[in-house]
């Protein structure tokens, strides 16, 4: 079976920056490419769309080789970060630019709820509206694969959440490979059937959202996906010794082995402490994030970051002694 | 001290503006309207205007047809060659027009291979309309290239990528996306080239003293009859320049 | 069909490039090096070069001193006046140089108030170095204004705001932030103006046929002695233009 | 007492857009200005900094009137979204530009941990590094008030979180009024002693983070601060009737009154339902946000959005019947 989008050793060099070699197979699923700015995400999409030529490697889509083909013959749809709508055309003309007929335009306009915007020029659209039109325009060409370059990143939160929900349903209804590039862990986990974490041009880990978040394979993946507690330690009898503290972890690694312990702030529970048993420390700082509190606890050695519900956070104060319960420590 | 400095700066700029505008106003005050109007129908004026307009139109068309593809290539190519090519385009812009005339004469003048062949074929390249067009094209066409290049660069490349990824080829993309968006800048370049061609004097004097263009006629009238005789053609050219300015804005 | 179209486009552009470059190569092939080298020390050549360089330097300095404040104002002012002022600056650029000469003569020529006063004071404004400088300033200084304006606009206004909010006044901000960042563009404008002044012919012919600048000398040599006699000065001006091109890049 | 930063009826018109009149008093505290893009946040800062002149209103800082004064005489420090570092100067020269002495530069470099960056040009700095240098540069001028324009918005999440934590401590140590502009609810609640919500040029609500989030005064404030469940309904005997559903709310408003009910997704609890008592519906969609799930429940009338912990979300599936517990319904 050679269907879907297949990247084999795809490579591109720009001066000292090198992307790849990237190996990735995207079936009729959504793969989100997650990485910091400058890691090569946009270049990867450009290579697949054919607007940048690869230095090495090969690319197939549904069994056809795309190598060396011009962008217009690839059947790859591309949605840009800012929409890249043609400013001299109305929304309708933008969508119709590559559509097979007016019926298709009206159809997509209904799906993406842009019927009322069709007569406007892009300059008269808000960011979220422009992205809906851009999506419709790309889908109008009936692409065999869909690439999206951070289409939500410049939108305000309420519109971003709503469009993200809709993208989730839209992708579910499409039966083409989707590659979605983002620097936002939340977009990556919400939209991706699988996540590929990209770091300085290289794929560092590929897996389901749960696998990547719960079992990161490197410190970079851990930190970039929001695992803020990353401690260097040593395996001891009853867990992992970090600084002057022992984290309770069940592991079959030999005592004395050097390990890195990862722990997501959301997996820490904090309770008021009235004695010294277990992981006890003092609240160093607490920050009101609205739907919860971010609490930094001084354990005497390392600092522990925890996110706790509103009620739990409100009852804490700087200096208060707390006991931390940590269940989901992951060892690298 | 802040306002002192501002005052000095504005005064300097104001003086320069005055230097640009006062002579123009003075021209219209100096030229007796009746006499100017009367001489507008004289054969010398009409002939010069016809020559200038026909030649400038031809050289602008040539410059646009040959220059736009070059401008697009300069705007989009990724090679190191673009710098060298751009230098070759800018050179005629910084080259004195009389020198342009000299270098053209070494290629198309009498006693040159090209000049002799063309003259034998009945299309002399000097002292002819063809000579005027050649001179004007040399000095004016770089304006099309340089200005259109900037206009093409101003079109976001992502828009071209979007068009291509929507299944449209290079030519369709250029026609439906790039050219419409670059049109104002391209028009500005074409207008600048036309204005430069209308005003061409130095290279024309070397290549084609006859048939007389308007700038040459101004010189001839001035030398043979005095400043007053130069007013009618000068006023026509001021009006043409003002119209060009309107298009540019 | 895609590659056919590309080929045609590149061929058109290539022909235009050839038209710019071949005459220059031809000049160097046509001019016998020995004769040219010998004539470089002739009094007419040396005098013309001295006049051109002195006058072009003066007019460039004038254009820069008066033009930079105007360029900065055009780049930063928020009023509707900027469009009108910019049009006044661009007008001398699109005005034929001979017409520039005519309009200047109506202000500084013989029998004008300014011309008579200056002549009486011992500084005649026509047929003099002053006349050359006046002609060159009129046609060349707009290059400083237009290019420097673009350079100033290229400096992010937020940087000036940052400097001001850090307690530095307008003048300090201009000196330490805006000017250093705009320097390459300002230098380009000054270079263009100098090149334009060196090549000025049309307005100079009208205002100051004497003392002869290099472009005027080319014309005089060509008319009185033939094309060969124009080569030495032409080659000097080609070299000057090439140097200007180096600075621009 | 006329200390701090006082805005009285500050107004600015640009064509059809009008900012203000804004009345706001900022003492030695942090006020975050929260609003969508285009609401006038940046213009507000420009008016205070003096880089844009007000059409109307007045401005005082520590009792001095700032009206009509040029920016350099206001003593107001401004940190720009992208740093606005002088690109031709090194980081050290940027900081020293307005510093009272080299000692002050070294001092600030230590505070902001930029000692190792001082010899670099801005182009060689990452986004987070540039913002640290920009902060140091602004503080070097010893401003009497500090304005910040979304300084975190272009940073990747891990760096954004870290710098946000540090800003919290830094602001705490400053004794000048701080006005911090952002479109991000989380930054607004973490950093602000008070939040001013701005909408289309007008201040819609000012209050503590808890007040604004828990007791929004308008539907706009509710939605923009992340309260996604906003329902039009009518007061009935045992709560508020919305569509075919009754939300249990204690209110003293008369039965029959039309009200708008607001409910943050994080305040909804979902449990598996085995009968029809209470608020029961079917899971329409669930989205993995990493540290929790976003669940949309079809209540038969309105859709209810809930965010639930990882374990709770993982046990749900589309179509599953759930019972929603809603404790914190706020009525407009």
Automatic annotation (TrEMBL), chains A, D:
It holds the Pfam family ABC_tran. The complex is composed of two ATP-binding proteins (WtpC), two transmembrane proteins (WtpB) and a solute-binding protein (WtpA). This is Molybdate/tungstate import ATP-binding protein WtpC. GO terms for cellular component: ATP-binding cassette (ABC) transporter complex. Its EC number is 7.3.2.6. It is found in: Cell membrane. It comes from the Archaea. Belongs to the ABC transporter superfamily. Sulfate/tungstate importer (TC 3.A.1.6) family. It catalyses: tungstate(in) + ATP + H2O = tungstate(out) + ADP + phosphate + H(+). One of its GO terms (molecular function) is ABC-type ferric iron transporter activity. PANTHER family: SPERMIDINE/PUTRESCINE IMPORT ATP-BINDING PROTEIN POTA, SPERMIDINE_PUTRESCINE IMPORT ATP-BINDING PROTEIN POTA. It is a peripheral membrane protein. The lineage of its organism: Archaea, Methanobacteriati, Methanobacteriota, Stenosarchaea group, Halobacteria. It comes from Haloplanus rubicundus.
């Amino acid at each position: 079976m050679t269907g879907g989008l297949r990247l084999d050793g795809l490579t591109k060099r720009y001066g000292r920056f090198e992307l790849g070699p990237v190996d990735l197979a995207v079936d009729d699923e959504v793969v989100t490419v997650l990485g910091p700015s400058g890691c090569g995400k946009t270049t990867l999409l450009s290579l697949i769309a054919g607007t940048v030529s690869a230095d090495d490697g090969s690319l197939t889509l549904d069994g056809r080789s795309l190598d060396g083909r011009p962008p217009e013959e690839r059947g790859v749809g591309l949605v840009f970060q800012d929409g890249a709508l043609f400013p001299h055309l109305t929304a309708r003309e933008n969508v119709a630019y590559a559509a097979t007929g007016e019926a298709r335009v009206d159809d997509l306009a209904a799906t993406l709820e842009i019927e009322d915007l069709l007569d406007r020029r892009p300059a008269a659209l808000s960011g979220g509206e422009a992205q809906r039109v851009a999506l419709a325009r790309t889908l109008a060409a009936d692409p065999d694969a869909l690439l999206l370059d951070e289409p939500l990143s410049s939108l305000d939160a309420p519109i971003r959440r709503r469009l993200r929900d809709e993208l989730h349903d839209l992708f579910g209804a499409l039966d083409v490979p989707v590659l979605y590039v983002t620097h936002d862990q939340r977009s990556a986990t919400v939209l991706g059937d699988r996540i590929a974490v990209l770091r300085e041009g290289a794929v560092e880990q590929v897996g389901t959202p749960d696998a990547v978040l719960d079992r990161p394979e490197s410190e970079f993946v851990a930190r970039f996906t929001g695992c803020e507690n990353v401690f260097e330690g040593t395996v001891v009898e009853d867990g992992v010794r970090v600084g002057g503290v022992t984290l309770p972890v069940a592991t079959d690694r030999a005592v004395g082995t050097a390990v890195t312990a990862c722990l997501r702030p959301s997996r820490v529970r904090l309770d008021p402490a009235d004695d010294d048993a277990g992981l006890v420390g003092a609240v160093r700082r607490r920050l009101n994030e609205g739907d919860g509190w971010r609490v930094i606890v001084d354990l005497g050695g390392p600092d522990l970051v925890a996110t706790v519900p509103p009620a739990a956070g409100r009852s804490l104060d700087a200096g208060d002694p707390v006991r931390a319960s940590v269940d989901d420590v992951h060892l690298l | 001290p802040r306002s002192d400095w501002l005052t000095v700066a504005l005064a300097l700029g104001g003086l320069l503006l005055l230097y640009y505008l006062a002579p123009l106003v003075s021209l219209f005050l100096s030229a007796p309207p009746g006499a100017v109007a009367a001489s507008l129908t004289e054969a010398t004026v009409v002939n010069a205007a016809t020559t200038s307009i026909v030649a400038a139109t031809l050289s602008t068309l040539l410059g646009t047809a040959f220059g736009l593809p070059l401008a697009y290539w300069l705007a989009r190519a990724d090679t190191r060659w673009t710098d060298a090519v751009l230098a070759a385009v800018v050179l005629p812009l910084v080259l004195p027009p009389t020198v342009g005339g000299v270098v053209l004469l070494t290629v198309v003048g009498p006693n040159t291979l090209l000049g002799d062949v063309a003259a034998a074929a009945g299309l002399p390249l000097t002292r002819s309309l063809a000579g005027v067009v050649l001179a004007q094209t040399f000095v004016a066409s770089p304006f099309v290239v340089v200005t259109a290049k900037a206009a093409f660069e101003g079109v976001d490349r992502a828009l071209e990528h979007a068009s291509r990824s929507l299944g449209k080829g290079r030519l369709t993309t250029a026609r439906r996306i790039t050219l419409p968006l670059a049109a104002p800048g391209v028009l500005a370049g074409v207008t600048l080239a036309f204005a430069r061609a209308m005003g061409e004097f130095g290279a024309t004097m070397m290549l084609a003293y006859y048939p007389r263009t308007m700038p040459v006629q101004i010189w001839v009238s001035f030398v043979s009859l005095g400043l007053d005789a130069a007013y009618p053609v000068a006023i026509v050219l001021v009006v043409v320049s003002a119209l060009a300015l309107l298009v540019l804005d």
